[in-house]
Recover the amino acids of this structure.
């Protein structure tokens, strides 16, 4: 998909059944709505969420999806349940808290500690690196990046790329991982842009809808002058670990 192609969003029943504003939007647009960009589609979903009773989200279509839609507008109800269903003996069922949901994306991107699939693939297609077998080693607790008095970013991981163990470092990737539609805070974005002037900074967004079988990640290199660059989409299955 190129920047000048429309972004097609299929309006699902879960959205129109749960949100009156989405139902009206679906009546006007039909089964599929076209937007100028994914950002426009996500902005519209936020507007419809604010106008209706149930939050909505834009969910990317899976790579193997036969539909010609790029994404779906679906209901995304808030998880409010505090007490689990069940008993300790029979099993306890909990809703996933926001911080747990965010940790899912970080976990799949930052594991295993050597050659994690998303970053290993990105390194293979990075034109700045040689076309050889590469070794990616993760530091899951890098130092915070601090710029000025108010811009601070704590990366989720720092990846060093080498030709092998104990070989010289070819490059480093400083990474921020978001699950689903999680937003990048302004102070994070400013510090990431500043850091991009001296190292490669990656924004990684992960769709964990298909876990435990697969997940999809979009990797975007931060440009220190122009902001975000082009997405590289990576789909990984559990076979990647075998």
């Amino acid at each position: 998909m190129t920047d000048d192609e429309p972004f097609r969003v299929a309006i699902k029943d879960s959205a129109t059944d749960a949100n009156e504003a989405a139902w009206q939007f679906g009546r006007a647009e039909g089964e599929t709505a076209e937007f100028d960009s994914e950002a426009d589609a996500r902005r519209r979903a936020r507007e419809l969420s604010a106008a209706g009773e149930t939050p909505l989200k834009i969910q990317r279509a899976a790579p193997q999806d036969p539909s010609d839609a790029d994404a779906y507008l679906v209901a995304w109800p808030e998880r409010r349940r505090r007490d689990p269903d069940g008993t300790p003996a029979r099993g306890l069922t909990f809703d996933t808290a926001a911080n747990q949901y965010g940790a899912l994306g970080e976990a799949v991107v930052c594991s295993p500690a050597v050659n994690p699939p998303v970053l290993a693939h990105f390194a293979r297609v990075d034109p700045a690196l040689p076309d050889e077998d590469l070794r990616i080693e993760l530091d899951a607790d890098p130092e915070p990046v601090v710029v000025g008095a108010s811009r601070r970013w704590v990366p989720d991981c720092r990846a060093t790329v080498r030709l092998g163990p104990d070989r010289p470092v070819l490059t480093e990737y400083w990474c921020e991982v978001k699950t689903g539609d999680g937003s990048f805070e302004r102070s994070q974005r400013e510090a990431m842009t500043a850091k991009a002037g001296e190292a490669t900074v990656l924004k990684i967004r992960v769709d964990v809808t298909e876990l435990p079988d697969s997940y999809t990640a979009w990797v975007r290199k931060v440009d220190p002058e122009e902001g975000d660059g082009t997405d590289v989409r990576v789909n990984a299955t559990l076979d990647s670990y075998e």
The CA atoms of residues 160 and 172 lie 5 Å apart. DSSP finds six helices and 14 strands in the chain. Residues 238-242 have pLDDT under 50 and may be disordered. The two ends are 31 Å apart (CA to CA).
